[in-house]
Specification:
single chain; 4-stranded antiparallel β-sheet; about 15% strand; alpha+beta; binds flavin mononucleotide; NADH Oxidase
């Protein structure tokens, strides 16, 4: 039997961003989505603010979010720069995904600098990514500029901000090796 460290290390290394074009049409059951979300709640959090907030978009709700994002792109783009292909591809990504989560944070400016809350949010998203990988669910964090315009559509509260979208779907992609430069180039050891 694999030791805990082998299991953990394999999941960490195996996790890749899997994009909607690779998703199958198989729906992710609600219980599986809940399991992935539950893992987010165990992220570390300074002053226990637990800033991670998620909105699960499925079915008609997902289609509406896709159309809204496409609408924002059209509105924000000068007519001579507008690309119908890009517009169509935004909605298409939502069609290809089984569900899309809004990655939001409830900031507490009176308690903590925003970066600490965004760091906690990213820890929560990584927990979800690893749990998704362990459940053979493909996922990726997307952060288009247009998310800053989604506040009204998502009915975000005061000091709540959207930091991305988490696309999810089952997939049949072959395992891909991570593209990374050696860790030794990113670490300095000081021992004296
Ligand atoms: C905060 C954050 C935002 C990201 N935004 C995007 C994005 O907008 N579009 C995209 O294609 N990938 C996005 N990614 C995924 C990266 O492209 C991906 O993690 C990177 O290529 C490494 O691949 P891997 O996740 O398979 O290891 C984002 C990742 C993070 C952590």
């Amino acid at each position: 039997m694999d030791s805990q460290i082998e299991i953990l290390s394999n999941i960490i290394k195996r996790r890749r961003s899997i994009f909607p074009v690779s998703y199958t049409s198989q729906e992710i059951p609600v219980e599986v989505i809940e399991k992935i979300l539950e893992s987010a709640n165990y992220a570390p959090t300074h002053k226990m603010t637990q800033p991670w907030r998620f909105i699960v978009y499925r079915k008609e709700g997902k289609t509406k979010l896709g159309l809204e994002l496409a609408r924002i792109y059209k509105e924000a783009t000068a007519p001579e720069k507008f690309l119908q292909k890009k517009y169509d591809s935004i909605a298409e990504k939502f069609d290809q995904s089984s569900c899309v989560l809004a990655i939001n944070a409830q900031l507490h400016p009176e308690k903590l600098p925003a970066w600490e809350e965004v760091a906690a949010l990213a820890c929560a998203v990584q927990n979800m990514s690893l749990t998704a990988e362990a459940l053979n669910v493909g996922a990726y964090w997307s952060s288009p500029d247009t998310i800053s315009e989604l506040g009204a559509f998502m009915e975000l509260k005061e000091n709540e901000q959207c930091f991305g979208l988490f696309y999810m779907g089952y997939h049949e992609e072959e395992e891909r090796t991570a593209v990374r430069t050696p860790m030794s180039e990113k670490v300095k050891w000081v021992e004296e």
